[in-house]
């Protein structure tokens, strides 16, 4: 066991944990004021629900030896998970610490997913969905990529979760949103508080350094490369988005810059430890531009309501990043990989990435549909008229985020009085 590596991963685990509260604020500022607490609760409750799903069965299915498709029950209920190391997955750090690091990845994936159904899904069915999704969708894909499964054997690579975290959560969020009818009779209002969104974005941005750098499991040249790539990709993604926004709309918005930053971070995540600095800039620029067009044109054309653009940023960004990893991966940067298409490695590196992406999309979409259908047999998934009118904060949680006088709170943009937010 290496003490330095253990302390390093301990810090990175805390940084990745910070991403979920950060994303809760990012999303919270984007919704109507009467639904901000519910939106925050969807992310924060993920910490609770995912923890139990992960320790009971998820970690074992993801990282137990098993077969090419699914892990076994070696670590059921965290048995055999302690301060000991594990030669295959944590050779120089405690297995329990590795388990926690991976738990944070799973938690942020669920938090991302919640953005697609913000303000539109009932809370208890959402919690049930999260528990089942961790076990039936996330854990198998984690095993395919990082647990010795078929994607790993195929030769496809995913440094820190472009496929495992972002594609699964983005696609599942979109399918769930379409199923519950997100967007039907729904008047999309402007964000109620972009300062809260900014604070959340800053926390997510900082946490992402632990997300990518920690995936090396030690602070070596690969970790340093991924650190630099993560820093420059965030800026490149923001630049790509902002330039396109200025060209198409003659404006540069804060939410656009923050969305581009996230798009760049998502795009570089599968490639961070496998590509050089200039390649990282190209990947993030393309990621920012592609996400901009997906949200502002494809989404509008197809008329689906990906409520807070979880699919548009994480799903699309994850697909772009995963495929471009096969283009720009470099043996010079990381000796564990072969050269990609851009460096004379041929088309095979791109082809295996495409196969991994396509199968992950289909698997995530189909399983999400099945899980939601089963839950729908026992409970409605979408919010009812009372919840939509009065707000989920008041009806579901019995709380209000804001008070502004005796007679209630006025909507931040419209000035319309929300009579259900009266001071007690």
TrEMBL record:
Pfam families linked to this entry: Ammonium_transp (PF00909)
One term of GO molecular function: ammonium channel activity
Gene Ontology CC annotations of this record: plasma membrane
Transmembrane spans: 6-31, 43-63, 93-114, 126-147, 159-182, 194-211, 223-244, 251-268, 274-295, 307-330, 350-372
Predominant place of localization: membrane
SUPFAM superfamilies: Ammonium transporter (SSF111352)
Keywords: Ammonia transport, Membrane, Transmembrane, Transmembrane helix, Transport
Domain Ammonium transporter AmtB-like: 8-402
Keyword Transmembrane attached: yes
Domain of life of the native organism: Bacteria
Location(s), subcellular: Cell membrane; Membrane
Topology of this chain in the membrane: Multi-pass membrane protein
UniProt xrefs under NCBIfam families: amt
Family recorded in the similarity comment: Belongs to the ammonia transporter channel (TC 1.A.11.2) family.
Protein name per the record: Ammonium transporter
Organism: Staphylococcus gallinarum
Classification of source organism: Bacteria, Bacillati, Bacillota, Bacilli, Bacillales
